[in-house]
Write the structure tokens for this entry.
Amino acid sequence: MDRVPALEEPLKKLLGGPTAKVMAEHLDLHTVGDLLHHYPRRYEERGQLTKLAELPLDEDVTVVAQVADARVHTFNGGRGQRLEITITDGSGRLQLVFFGRGIHKPHKELLPGSRAMFAGKVSMFNRRMQLAHPTYAKLGADAAEGEDTADIDSWAGALIPIYPACKGLESWKIAKAVDAVLPSAQEAVDPLPDSLREGRGFVPLPEALLKVHRPHTKADIEDARQRLKWDEAFVLQVALARRRHADGQLPAVARRPAPGGLLDAFDAKLPFTLTEGQEKVSEEIFDDLATEHPMHRLLQGEVGSGKTMVALRAMLAVVDSGGQAAMLAPTEVLAQQHHRSITEMMGELAEGGLLGGSEQGTKVVLLTGSMGMPARRQALLDLVTGEAGLVIGTHALIEDKVQFHDLGLVVVDEQHRFGVEQRDALRGKGKQPPHLLVMTATPIPRTVAMTVFGDLETSVLDQLPAGRSPIASHVVPAQDKPHFLARAWERVREEVDKGHQAYVVCPRIGDDEEEAKTAKGKKKAEEAETADKRPPLAVIETAGHLAKGPLQGLRVEILHGRMQPDDKDAVMRRFGAGEVDVLVATTVIEVGVNVPNATAMVIMDADRFGVSQLHQLRGRVGRGSAPGLCLLVTDMPEASPARARLNAVAGTLDGFELSRIDLEQRREGDVLGQAQSGVRSSLRMLTVIDDEEVIAAAREEAVTVVAADPDLERLPGLRTALDALLDKDREQYLDKG
């Protein structure tokens, strides 16, 4: 029987079942190789204490600090006991709390003046950060003789590695597990071609792994990091370069618009001129469509920069040449909105074959999962016969039943909501691979575009069409200054009095059933004492409160994802027609919803949304000639990171600047997110914002390597690394192109 390579050895063979189980479930580590690539987040130097002042909320952290004081409090008439310990590191102080019987051991061991490593989840209680029931290991002279924790002193001379940890597996336990597998690092297969590694002066991979886990000096850490960052950037860029190379070999039908055809007729009836940016990007797209290889283009543009217009013109060009075009939208609300706005823009051109329709026109059909059977059957028939040149739909377009007469172009709206497999499933419906245009209104910094969408060419729309108005944004600190919130509702009334409309956005839908579930899952009383968090505000309750209170007399309606599609559509139509003053909604209105008369938006619990999401939501107002207003309501205290994030959103309308802030505050794994579905989150060392030069250089090297050896036959080490990065389905996809 073949021997299992050392790095593929399952962890349970070396570490025992319970530890391996926690590593698999919470850290996604299954083999020796996985654990060797689980790098320390940072390093503690002996005598130098962590900055408590910079702890992130809601994250598992490990800190090294000194006990300042310890006090036992009683509650419930003396029946309950709580131990509060304050630790300090010179930069700040942090409270630890232990309850009930769990107080005896720490009370005896954690005496003022002693030093230890503490691990736990940072939470907020009474507006102060704390760790509830942290685990700890005493350090140095404070560790008891023969205690398990005394091994800490033998770690790595002067530098203590601090690992990303989880509940039940603290950093120091991970370090002991790493010690057990470290000898296997000698067998690590190097993915970098020798010429590249030597040319750039990198240390060999086994040495880099040794230095990152057990450095003796800061120079060791630097050597290891430079090398390991390159591995990540290079292997990912090779995967993308192979995909681009494979796509470049595919045949496609060139699609050129017919002179005097549908596109010319549409352009002739436009009531405005296209912006310079729209003209330029359209030219790039038309050039791609005219080639006999499939276009793969990413169109990114600020909220409201007119991407839909550019996409529609590309779709019409394809219909002109005898093909069909499909637009895939992430939600039914958005698909309906696109269908409505496209048929309105096209007028009689969208009624091909119908009475009163134009000679040059075509049929535009909508296909969603909740359509009634007769309408759905008709839509499917129109697609398979070629009667419908344009189709707009949701995931329902991907189903096996959907057949096209001649699919020439696929437009994917809001790409970050779809995985690679979904867009490929739709592309598979063409007789030959169709052209692909991917759109996003979430601006993407260049390095992220190279990393996440590295298989696509990129076009950017950064001009806003004439007539768009500026949006003023302000943070409303409801907890600190309740009168600011009262003023927010007055501002909404003022906008409605001027004949305008407003949105109120909440993070949650809220209903009795949901409340019952929450009540059922309530934490024990003592945990509840530490969980200083009310549930997020909900659409249903908020709408009721506003209609009876601050917005009494106004026409208030609700919109959320759990409503029936027809009901959702009816509400959006009424809102679009001006029959609703205030729409209280979840984020279903985040993308594509276009009501130029809506000028104000109040986002409740704004701290619970991401930066890019807030920017997207805000883009729903100021779409007409009147200026827009966006109010970000929060209960978070002034000094919190959440408030800093909201201040950043209020401070700029530049989506690219905000997307940088967003990425700096999120973990790298989220950056790849769904867009790279099928790729394991591979970025452990590389940071896509800071390592722009590494990514750009790795991309160049990857292109050279793949051009010379597309199947990597001469580079078995690189093939092995690719296999580890890609799961089997995705690998087959890459090989098939």
Q: What stands out?
A: Confidence is low (pLDDT under 50) at residues 145-157, 518-532, 667-681, 728-737. The radius of gyration is 29 Å. The chain has 27 helices and 21 strands.
